[in-house]
Amino acid sequence: MLQIIDHIPAGLATVAQSDLGTLFNGPTLMHLEGRKPERLFVAVLQHGNEDVGLRAVQNLLIRYRDRELPRSLSVFFANIEAARLNQRRLPHQPDYNRVWPGGESEPCPESDMMRKVVETMSRGPLFASVDLHNNIGLNPHYACINRTDHRFLQLATLFSRTVVYFTQPRGVQSLAFAALCPAVTLECGQAGNEHGIDHATEFLDACLHLESIPEHPVHDRDIDLFHTTAVVKVHAQARLGIGNEDGDIVLIHDLEFFNFRELQPGTVFGTVKTGRDDSLLVIDDRGRNRVEDYFEVENSQLRLRRTVMPSMLTVNKTAIRQDCLCYFMERWPLTKSD
Fold it and tell me: 238 lies in a domain?
């Protein structure tokens, strides 16, 4: 499935995301040479409805059209097929960002492809890995890391002082590359947002110019570090409603405004028909369902039982079904090891 090229196809800098398939027959790894040999690896379009990665790379190609790249660059254009239809993934596909080496998914052609990408990139010197994403809900721009190594933290805070450390889910690109080089996932706001595209572009350009990633600690005044403790999912069999809709579980319509806010016990997420909280799953880092530790039902209202800070909350039903409702986080001290 994987194509590997060492040139810029004509028209790549301006092609629409939906037309990328006219240049690539499928997932493609593009190697470009630059002045410094240690490569910057960039993953884009792991989810086909997220445009920030492609747009940021296109900005770089235009910026360096007539001059040498400061550093060698490799770009992985992932889910070309889903991008054509502006979908996160197609029904027959796995989530591309859950099938990288180290994950728990069943072997499939896509996981074989990701293994080949990792093997290919491991053969040469790597400077850093950047996985670019949009998110559905209302969230600030933030960086995610899988290790609290100083270099990972330095790279993350180059993008944002808001940093999320996570170890679940497995099978994500940044976790696979963390064994090879400093790796970050960047969440750049909602698709189509020009500020997010500009922010991602400037970050990539900064990485191309960096001589090295600092190895000294990040000062605690320069970072807000959080740790993901659990992922919240709607049960596959539960009928989901939003706002005034009907369903086994009905979420409040403005739930997204809770993102990155510390929510107190008693905060209402919605209503449930059954009088119980069995429409939700709250899976912790050990794979245990701890819904009763986080939620309670009172007069059919689904309320928080404890203080939490959510991220990536969304009321987009497709995103909830294909991925999750949100993640729960806690503050993570810089002095605590991973």
Answer: yes
Neighbours of 67 (CB within 10 A): 7
Residues 88 and 107 placed together within one structural domain of the fold: yes
Final residue before a domain boundary, out of 182, 199, 222: 222
* Structural domain count of the chain: 2
Query: Domain of 110?
Result: 3-222
**pLDDT in 10s for each residue of the chain, 338 residues:** 899 999 999 999 999 999 999 999 999 999 999 999 999 999 999 999 999 999 999 999 999 999 999 999 999 999 999 999 999 999 999 999 999 999 888 999 999 999 999 999 999 999 999 999 999 878 999 999 999 999 999 999 999 999 999 998 999 999 999 999 999 999 999 999 999 999 999 999 999 999 999 999 999 999 999 999 999 999 999 999 999 999 999 999 999 999 999 999 999 999 998 766 689 999 998 899 999 999 999 999 999 999 999 999 999 999 999 999 999 999 998 876 56
- Tell whether 324 is covered by a domain: yes
Q: Burial of 35 by CB count in 10 Å (0-12 exposed, 13-18 middle, 19+ buried)?
A: exposed
Residue corresponding to tokens 């929510």:
263
Angle formed by the axes of helices 52-63 and 194-209, nearest 10°? 50
Domain stop point among 193, 222, 251? 222
